[in-house]
């Protein structure tokens, strides 16, 4: 099969937007102010497991990539999540959010609240990055194309609907909104440049679809158990 033009390929990737988790019922309830404190804590504790593993996912991509230019660009993602020293980075900011909704640092770090379905979905994502071709794994991260709008909406909703959350708890979102302000264009450029056959383009589309499934599976699990509380 002949590869389609870059514009058409990017359009196929963007067409997956309805599969993103922005319209998930749990997110809709969150934005409407309908979550109780225990539900927010369950969400924060489980989302932590995803945040903790993102740097490992990116390190797996880095280890599989033979191109120095791409590796130099990609390593910044690990630094963003892990920081350059203890007490910095996106993962640390997520812990601050968890503390702001009433969890202790200890119970976040020991992962006592992480649900089996969440662990299974996130581990599958990390394993995907370890075992698939590096450009396919990069393509799985193109949910960046959709995440900026969701984060802006979530930050506004959390501030309005849950005024008891201290402002310092929102550091993850304020920093991440800036990081994804380009809607993943740098990642799109990498995927387009290195997906030179139609088969590779279709693999990239399938990878992004898989990532959307991972995110929705995470939230499906949290939503189910939140309903049991």
From TrEMBL:
Q: What is this protein called?
A: Pyrroloquinoline-quinone synthase
Q: Could you say which EC number(s) this protein's record lists?
A: 1.3.3.11
* UniProt GO BP: pyrroloquinoline quinone biosynthetic process
Which Gene3D superfamilies does its entry note? Heme oxygenase-like
The reaction(s) annotated as catalysed by this protein in its Swiss-Prot or TrEMBL entry are:
6-(2-amino-2-carboxyethyl)-7,8-dioxo-1,2,3,4,7,8-hexahydroquinoline-2,4-dicarboxylate + 3 O2 = pyrroloquinoline quinone + 2 H2O2 + 2 H2O + H(+)
Positions of transmembrane segments: none
Keyword terms of this UniProt record: Oxidoreductase, PQQ biosynthesis
Which Pfam families would you find in this protein's record? TENA_THI-4 (PF03070)
């Amino acid at each position: 099969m002949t590869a389609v033009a870059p514009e058409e390929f990017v359009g196929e990737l963007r067409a997956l937007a309805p599969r993103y988790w922005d319209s998930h019922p749990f997110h809709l309830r969150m934005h409407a102010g309908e979550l109780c404190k225990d539900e927010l804590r369950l969400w924060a504790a489980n989302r932590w497991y995803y945040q903790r593993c993102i740097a490992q996912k990116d390190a797996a991509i880095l280890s599989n990539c033979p191109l120095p230019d791409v590796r130099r660009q990609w390593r910044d993602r690990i630094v963003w999540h892990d920081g350059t020293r203890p007490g910095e980075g996106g993962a640390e900011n997520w812990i601050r959010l968890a503390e702001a909704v009433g969890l202790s640092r200890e119970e976040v770090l020991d992962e006592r609240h992480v649900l089996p379905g969440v662990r299974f979905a996130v581990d599958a994502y990390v394993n995907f990055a370890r075992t698939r071709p590096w450009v396919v794994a990069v393509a799985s991260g193109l949910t960046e194309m959709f995440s900026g709008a969701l984060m802006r909406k979530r930050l506004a909703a959390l501030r309005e609907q849950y005024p008891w959350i201290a402002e310092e708890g929102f550091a993850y979102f304020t920093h991440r909104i800036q990081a994804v302000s380009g809607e993943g264009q740098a990642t799109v450029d990498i995927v387009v440049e290195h997906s030179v056959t139609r088969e590779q383009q279709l693999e990239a589309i399938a990878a992004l679809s898989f990532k959307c499934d991972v995110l929705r599976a995470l939230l499906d699990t949290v939503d189910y158990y939140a309903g049991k509380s």
